Amino acid sequence: MESLIGPAKQLIGFLNDAHGVVDLSAMRFAYPIQLLPAAALITEKSLEYKMPSSSSCAGYLQYFHFPKGFTQFKSVSSSYIPIYKFHGINGTEAEISNKSDILRNLMRIMLRDLGSPTGAVNALELVVDEIVSNIGEHSGAKYGWINAQYYPKKKYLDVCILDRGKSITGRYKEAGKIFLNDLESLKSALEGESSKPEKIRGSGLPTFVKMVTRGFEGEIVVISGNAIAFGNKNSGPLVQNISAKWDGTIVAFRIPSNQNPIDYALYIE
Fold first, then answer.
1. Per-residue CA distances from 160 to 53, 144, 184, 197 (Å)
2. Are 37 and 8 in contact (CB under 8 A)?
3. Would the CA dihedral through 231, 237, 243, 249 be positive or negative?
4. Between 20 and 30 A from 207 (CA), which of 26, 48, 112, 119?
């Protein structure tokens, strides 16, 4: 399975260059970890942009409703979820229901294309619900964003979920826990230091990372502020500073198909 490291590095380069007019003309291929941050940045900051000069790449972006995304559920495929914005805070009953439809569709894609291993549905629900709940409860962002794509020839699934709200550092600060920088904050989150009033069993980044990297033998990238973490089944999560800064948090993961049965309880702390 190809690594997420390459696309993550390309994302960092994009974020460093994304000032004024966002130039995507050189883009030839876009994974969710690249496509979704670009869409959120352009839309939420009302930036001008240039589409890829590659007609196939430009068509792909348009098909995924780049950059504004959908705000209502639209089941157009069983192998991908186009760009969606879902309400992070103060959503209406209809908006919350719409978000549930989107996430249920993601589960169907993941289970079908990953081979429906025993225990996967519980594991996946725990993983995705944790990220989406954090956006709704703690990020302060008006919207969360999600994009997913299964690649049948490469036999893996990519998912990206993000917000442009408070970074992990900002969430800790709000809870009265002060860290000097984004690197320390991300390390603490990965070690299980909760920004919630009380630690809830089975919640937090450690559970999520273990589920993806050990349970599904996949890879994960987390970016918050100017810190990045990368983990896979062999190492990590490794945390370091990056030259770019993301206002909010990006979580992207890659899961291979042909999964073995998963006991999600093994990864709950």
1. 24, 11, 23, 27
2. no
3. positive
4. 112
C-alpha gyration radius of the chain: 17
Token pair, residue 209, equals 């990372």
pLDDT at 200 over 50: no
Task: List the domain boundaries for the chain.
Answer: 5-257
Q: Which of 141, 133, 61 is nearest to 99 (CA)?
A: 133
Sign of CA dihedral 229, 232, 238, 244: negative
Query: How far is it, in rounded angstroms, from Cα 130 to Cα 45?
Result: 26
Burial 163-180 (b: 16+ CB within 10 A, else e): bbbbbbbbbbeeeeeebe
pTM of the model: 0.89
CATH H superfamily, domain 5-257: Histidine kinase-like ATPase, C-terminal domain (3.30.565.10)
- Tokens, residue 267: 């990864």
Q: Which amino acid is at 17?
A: D
Q: Answer whether 67's CB lies under 8 Å from 145's CB.
A: no
Q: For 228, what's the count of Cα atoms within 13 Å in the CB-facing half-sphere? A: 17
Summarize pLDDT for 3-31 with one digit per residue, the tens: 999 999 999 999 999 888 999 999 999 99
